[in-house]
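Protein Record: Sequence and Backbone Structure Tokens
======================================================
Scope: a single protein chain, as residues and as a discrete description of its fold.
Tokens: labelled as protein backbone structure tokens, with as many entries as the chain has residues.
Position: the record begins directly beneath this header, with no further notes in between.
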Amino acid sequence: MTMHLSRRAGLFSASLALALTAAAAPQTFDFKDPKGVNNAVFELDAPLESINGTANGVSGEIRFDPANPVALQGRIVVESASLHVPNPMMKDHLHGKDWLDVAKHPTITFEAGKLTNVRTQGDETTAEVTGKFTLKGVTRELTVPVRFTYLKDKLGARSNGRMQGDLLVVRSKFTLKRSDFGLNPGAPTDKVANEIALTLSLAGAAPRS
């Protein structure tokens, strides 16, 4: 009887260890959102004018381990031509050579390097991510605050049951200077702010077959 219970306990321990190992394994999350909900919001708030817009041409992959978030790898890509402002003439200028020059520079990218000041509580991890941000052919190193929310088994709820798997939600707010990236540097700052405030809200999927 004792040997039987010991064997069952051993099998249970082995199964639990295997389950924990599988749960802690890093996953690759795809940020190409078929729903088109993923977006970046940008704002230039100058004294005379405030320019607000969005971008939804988001893709990229992030490899994330909720048990070891500091090991994060990956990059986020935004299609330059997906940046939109309500005014049609302003949108043409935004896509033109003085600003984004989307014909020559079709993507904006952020490639993650390292995570610091990592704190995890429940399913949320906050950190600062240092990486390479490329805009209009100019690459600069940026450190930005980020919040990751790991949602196990929630892909089905978001996809109306079409896929099963996990979700990783990424949120970040930071600023950059358009003069650092050659975005119409001659524009007067009383009408076009030099600081661009960015807000990202993205969900990546890790489907399971």
Summary: The chain has one domain: 26-208.
